[in-house]
Amino acid sequence: MADLQRHFDRTIEQDRRVEPRDWMPDGYRATMVRQIAQHAHSEIIGMQPEGEWITRAPTLRRKAILLAKVQDEAGHGLYLYSAAETLGADRSELTAMLIEGRQKYSSIFNYPTLGYADVGVIGWLVDGAAICNQVPLCRSSYGPYARAMIRICKEESFHQRQGYELLLTMMKGTPAQRDMVQDAVNRWWWPSLMMFGPPDDASPNTARSMAWKIKRHTNDELRQRFVDMTVPQAEVLGVTLPDPELRWNPERGHHDFGPVDWSELKRVISGDGPCNARRVAVRRSAHEDGAWVREAAVAHARKTARRTAPDAETTSADAGATVMDVGTTNADAGATSADAGTAAGAEARA
Ligand SMILES: [Fe+2]
Ligand SMILES: [Fe+2]
């Protein structure tokens, strides 16, 4: 046991990756499963706020971009659930924990999208904050997570750019369009800063995650990096970030910013945000509506297994289980579009 622990410690110390076959402390495994699962849930729930706008996109080009973006988020969720499975987690159990409210996802997705400018602001600020958080995770000590993050980050950078480009276009439009952008920035700015988690002095797990090199920077470091990166972009756009205390501090070489309302984060995390109940309800009904897809996929895998090699039945049934979750995600996107479709259809007919 001491040998195994020493080997693990050396792996971390020398900046090598911990792989699924390696021994790891129980605490490390549990922390990784929890972090990866919450990340996966965030990607899947994160499809909803923007997915609601797919059928109401103003042009075909915007619809194609938004569809691609929302599908990317489904893909991110699937890579991450797969990464969690390499640690021995069961994907259907993780889904159960999400829809029963036993496991969390990023609180940012509990805010509503009120207009199409929100799609741009989510791309710019929310995906922008996600990039700040996730780029260092490409060097996270757990191999499958770090490798999944490389591809995810490339796609996140497309998400950020499409959002910013949408906002640039709207800012060149009518005064009403510029007002929509400013209003969306006012609503999303502070929740975006909360995406980095509580301040360092109230984040007891940070030290351990840093020691294990799961995390490379503290919450406050990443939040500062995000603010410094975003301020010049806001100037180019011509929007005002809703913080009267925001200003460049030449001594620190960083922007100072006003206090974040941590009681709001606490409230939203504990279930009392504007959309918590709706997000989980949509996810639950998509899961229930997708049951027939999962059953059909498993039945098909069994049939194929019987035809090809009678001994291979168990393995193929497992493959079927992987297909079934893809089915769920598609059904999920379908449910979201269907909801938006009803509203948009009603508008079009009116
Ligand atoms: Fe994503
Ligand atoms: Fe994204």
TrEMBL record:
Residues 327-350 have a biased composition (Low complexity). Residues 302-350 are annotated as: Disordered. It comes from the Bacteria. InterPro entries: Aromatic_CoA_ox/epox, Ferritin-like, Ferritin-like_SF, PaaA, PaaA_PaaC. This is 1,2-phenylacetyl-CoA epoxidase subunit PaaA. The lineage of its organism: Bacteria, Bacillati, Actinomycetota, Actinomycetes, Streptosporangiales. The gene is paaA.
